[in-house]
């Protein structure tokens, strides 16, 4: 029987939403094994001087428990 656990994180990038997702999953993988999926719950940007400063995503990352 497999048991899965989910955690929620927020990740950011000055390049794109895709880079924010990749950076978040990569960072979580440094301390969590067996990642199965990542769900983008929300995405938004921060603005500085009428320009997009950072792309941010809220992720729900699911992994199998050993």
Write the layout of secondary structure elements.
Layout: E1 4-13, H1 17-29, E2 35-48, E3 51-64
Antiparallel strand pairs: 1-3, 2-3
The largest sheet is: 3 strands, antiparallel
Order of strands across the biggest sheet? Answer: 1-3-2
Return Rg in Å.
Answer: 14 Å
Give the CA-based shape: elongated
**Count of alpha and pi helical runs:** 1
Give average pLDDT, whole number. 97
| N-to-C SSE string, H for helix and E for strand | EHEE
Structural class: alpha+beta
Strand content: over 45%
What is the number of strand segments?
Answer: 3
Instruction: State the end-to-end distance.
Output: 11 Å
Characterise this structure:
This protein has 66 residues and is of the alpha+beta class. 20% of the residues lie in helices and 58% in strands. The protein is built from one helix and three strands; from the N terminus they run βαββ. It has a three-stranded antiparallel beta sheet, covered by helices on one side. It is elongated, with a radius of gyration of 14 Å. The termini are close together. The mean pLDDT is 97.
Tags for this entry?
20% helix, alpha+beta, 66 residues, 3-stranded antiparallel β-sheet, elongated, 3 strands, 1 helix
Short description:
The protein has 66 residues and is α+β, with helices and mostly antiparallel strands.
């Amino acid at each position: 029987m497999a048991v899965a656990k989910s955690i929620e994180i927020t990740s950011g990038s000055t390049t794109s939403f895709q880079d924010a997702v990749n950076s978040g999953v990569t960072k979580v993988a440094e301390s969590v094994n067996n990642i199965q999926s990542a769900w983008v719950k929300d995405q938004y940007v921060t603005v500085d001087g009428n320009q997009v400063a950072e792309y941010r995503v809220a992720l729900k990352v699911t992994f199998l428990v050993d």
